[in-house]
Every structure is written in structure tokens, then in C-alpha cells.
Amino acid sequence: MNYSIRLFRVMGIPIELHITFILFLAVIIGLSIINNSIFWAVLFILLFVSVVLHELGHSYVAKKYGVKIEKILLLPIGGVAMMDKIPKEGELKIGIAGPLVSFIIGITLLAISQFFDININGYPLLYTLSLLNLMLGSFNLIPAFPMDGGRILRAILSKKYGYLKSTKIAANIGKSLALIMLIFGLLSMNIILILVSLFVYFGAEQESKIIEIETIFKNIKAKDIMTLNPVCVSPDMSVEEFLDFMLKHKYFGYPVVENGKLIGCIGISNIHKKEGTVRDYMEKPIVVSEDTDIKEIIRKMANTDRVFVVEDGKLRGIISKTDILRAMGILELKEELEH
Ligand SMILES: [Zn+2]
């Protein structure tokens, strides 16, 4: 289901309003009418035109690097240009372009407002809008993910430290700034500051996790990290035998194999009674092939602790969550030593 409405295209990029944005806009317009002050409604709409121009600034440069921009989506907290990827070479220029647009609009409007302004309900429209654009540009330059400043910082750092380490440094700076904002927000009971600090904290956390996984697991497939020749059990093994078997091998989960075929899997969490055999308690295994991408495996592991690697009907290996964590530690060290 699509929760947004498409307005029009600029530079071939669709501009969409999210349903929450439309509701927010309706509330602002409603309040303006009730209070007999259309200034706030006009200001709000122009502020979001400014946000679109800011995002178009990013998009314009991104397009030059061959980035495909799916759309610019407007949310009550701001705009997002949805790009299929952010090329490492272009990140610095793409990151700077948005705030640059905001500063150009802000300074131009500020200059104009010194000679001429539009007064609505006694408020100077151009002057207020110029300040909002300057704030928009400055706020986005805070060197913290997910703000533009975080990306600019990473782009500068990555020349020296490599992409992964720079992402971590930029994310840690973002998290530290977020914590400082949170403390100030709590002390002054400023709700906006508290919300922004949470937005920055979780944005930084998410960005660094995604980049970490993408960088170190790039081109890694199931066959690269699977444990070969896993210890199997037979479906006819009794529960008591199985418990002794588990004690001896000390794994928490096992493939159940019959006539050379994987027919199920069983682990410590499947057993609830002493009676019966493995067949009575085993469950359906989650199967991948040797060439399954690690990202796909992580996605499949959301609901299970291990996946089984099967090729030509034969069980080749097993990948547990522990295997992924261990592989991650080793690959991370490898990536760090390369820079
Ligand atoms: Zn931006």
C-alpha cells in the first residue's frame, strides 16, 4: 500500500507528499483559519518548497554521478531524496549541494527583505523565510548522521581511513552530539530538541550498521562462511539419545538427515518432553544454496537461529548466528588491516 500522493515531476523526479505530511498540512491550515492568521500556513508551505529545493540540490549533483532518484518524499520532519545508491566518489559534492541551495536561497531572500518584504498579519514573510532557510542549511551541516554534515565528514575522512572506519567515526560523533542534545533537551524540557536527538542517534546507529554489513560482507556468499560437514542426527533417534548426543557435541541445533536428504532440523528449543523420537519434534529447515548472498541469509535469520546450505539435494553446510558474528569479526579485522 502506498501512503503518499504524487504531485508533479521536477528534473524528471516525482515529488510526493506522505499522508502524515498532508494531515500535518491540514492541521496547520485549519489552525491558521481558526486563528484568522494565514501567515503560518503560507510560511509552512514555502518552507516545504525550500526543503524540496534543498533535496533537488542533492539530486541534481547525484544525477551527474549516475544515481537514479526514485522520488523526493515530504514528511512532517523534512524531505528525503530516495536514491538507489550514494556513490563514494560523489558523496562530498552530493552532501554539500543541499545545504548550499538552502544558503543561497536564505542569503538572497535576506538581501531582498532589506529593501522589500511581504507583510502578512504583520509578519515579514521573506525575512522569516530567509532565516528558516539559513537554519535548514546550518542544521544539516551538523557533522552527524543522518544529516548531510555526517556524509560530508565521512567523505573527507574516508580518503585517509577507508569507508568503514570513517562511517564508524562519523556515526560515533553523531551519537555523542545526539546525547549532548538529549541532555540539554531534558534539562530545558525542550521536546523538539529531545526528538531531534533521538532522530540523530538512531539515524547514526542505523547508518553505521548498514554500512558495516554492506562493506565487510560485500561479495561474501553462504559457501564462504558455512561450517562444513555439520553433525547430523537421524529422525529415529530417541529424545534421550538425542540429549546425550547434544551433550557430547555441544551445538544447540542439528540437521535431521534420512537417506542422505535433509528432512528437518532440531534443536534444544524443540524438545519439551522425554518421550518420542527426533522425528516427532523436528521442524522445517530454512534452506539456502551455496551462492546465496549473505544479506539474504541475514534476512532469513530473522525467524531462525540457523540456515542449512543445500546443493543438488545434498546438505553441504550450516550457518548459525554465531557463525555470522564470528565471520563479521574476522572480515572486519581484514578490512581494517587493508587500510
Ligand atoms: Zn540535505
What does this structure look like?
The protein is of the alpha+beta class. The chain has 3 domains: about 140 residues, no CATH class; about 70 residues; about 120 residues, CBS-domain, CATH 3.10.580.10. About 55% of the residues lie in helices and about 20% in strands. The chain contains 12 helices and 12 strands. Strands 1-2-3-4 form a 4-stranded mixed beta sheet. The protein has a 4-stranded mixed beta sheet with strand order 7-12-11-10. Helix 1 runs antiparallel to helix 2, helix 5 packs antiparallel against helix 6 and helix 6 runs antiparallel to helix 7. The chain is elongated. It starts with a strand and ends with a helix. The site of zinc ion has 5 residues, from helix 2.
Question: Which stretches of 5+ consecutive residues score pLDDT under 50?
Answer: none
Question: Which secondary-structure class do the elements indicate?
Answer: alpha+beta
How many domains, in number, for the residues? Answer: 3
Strand content: 15-25%
Order of helices and strands: EEHHEEHEEHHHHHEHEEHEHEEH
Named once each, the bound ligands are: zinc ion
Distance between the termini: 44 Å
Strand line-up in the sheet with most strands: 1-2-3-4
Largest sheet: 4 strands, mixed
Number of helices: 12
Helix content: 55-70%
Gross geometry: elongated
Radius of gyration, whole Å: 27 Å
Number of strands: 12
Mean pLDDT: 85
